[in-house]
Amino acid sequence: MGLPLNVKAGNDGLPMKTFRGFLLDADNTLLDYNRAEREAFLQAVVPALPGVPPEQARLAYGRINAEHWARFERGEITAGQLKLGRFQALLDSFGLQADPAGLSRVYLEALSAKAFFLPHAREVLEELSRQAALCLITNGLTLVQRGRIRASGMGRFFSAILISEEVGIAKPDPGFFRLASEALALPASELLCVGDNPTADIGGARGAGIAGCWYNPAGGAWPGPGDPPERTIADLRELLGFAEPGA
Ligand SMILES: [Mg+2]
């Protein structure tokens, strides 16, 4: 379809290795999660907070949500406590009484319908899926991610879809990436894992012996863990140069 390609040579100046399979992260790699979260919050949560300015509510929720995720990742609370606790804390912070479970439900329902492609994601998926086998790899809730995949229409581009809640294991556990390798019936050496998260996507793939491609549209410095991955891209169209020619 005549996409402008930007095929880079490796650090040694030689063309880089190509791949038969791609593991692609969903949120903030293919889909704009920040926009989805913002719109779902404004639609579902703000109306339940009478008298609270929307921006103030969003700032408070951002802080509370981050605190709850940090506690969840430290093993201090369960996923269920995360889902409800953040809305209870939000209500408490504004001295409001409401049902946090109901708020969580309407928020997740709204979020599950929000799917916005990042620049060039759709056209790259269409072209890349003709050249290589694709597996979607995402940490998240089944209800939310299945809904967003359906809303985006991108499911047809993937040979396999792995959602952490569905498979019972999450990035960066190497076992998650081995499942992806099995799902595509390709060995680790034939795969490239593409994602925006240095720990979950790149570190996780590395743990399973899979090459990494960091999606870094903002152009920031590699924060670790470890050395930078084999590849870094700022534009998803660069992926088309990494598929095996004629595959
Ligand atoms: Mg991501």
Spans of at least 5 consecutive residues whose pLDDT stays below 50 are: 1-8
What's the CATH first level of the largest domain? Alpha Beta
For the largest beta-sheet, the strand count, sense and barrel status come to:
6 strands, parallel
Query: Could you say which overall geometry the principal axes of the C-alpha atoms support?
Result: elongated
- Give the N-terminus to C-terminus distance in angstroms: 17 Å
Q: Which strands sit side by side, in order, in the main sheet?
A: 3-2-1-4-5-6
Task: Give the percentage of residues in beta strands.
Answer: 5-15%
Radius of gyration: 19 Å
CATH H level of the largest domain: which superfamily? HAD superfamily/HAD-like
Number of helices: 9
Secondary structural class: alpha/beta
Elements, N to C (H/E): EHHHHHEHEHHEHEE
CATH topology of the largest domain: Rossmann fold
CATH architecture of the largest domain: 3-Layer(aba) Sandwich
Number of domains: 2
DSSP E strands, number:
6
Q: Give the mean pLDDT.
A: 92
**So what's the oligomer here?**
single chain
Bound ligands: magnesium ion
> What's the helical proportion of residues?
40-55%
Please outline the helices and strands.
Elements lengths: L20 E5 L7 H13 L8 H20 L5 H15 L6 H12 L9 H11 L1 E6 L3 H11 L7 E4 H4 L6 H11 L6 E5 L2 H10 L3 E5 L15 E3 L14
Parallel strand pairs: 1-2, 1-4, 2-3, 4-5, 5-6
Bound molecules: magnesium ion (MG).
Describe what you observe in this structure:
- The chain is α/β, with parallel strands linked by helices and 247 residues long.
- It folds into 2 domains: 21-31 and 116-242, 3-Layer(aba) Sandwich (Rossmann fold), CATH 3.40.50; 34-111, DNA polymerase, domain 1.
- Helix content is 43%, strand content 11%.
- The protein is built from 9 helices and 6 strands; from the N terminus they run E-H-H-H-H-H-E-H-E-H-H-E-H-E-E.
- It has helices spanning 33-45, 54-73, 79-93, 100-111, 121-131, 142-152, 164-167, 174-184, 198-207; strands spanning 21-25, 133-138, 160-163, 191-195, 211-215, 231-233.
- The chain has a 6-stranded parallel beta sheet, sandwiched between helices.
- Helix 6 (142-152) links the parallel strand 2 and strand 3 (160-163).
- Helix 1 packs across helix 4 and helix 3 crosses helix 4 (100-111).
- The structure holds magnesium ion.
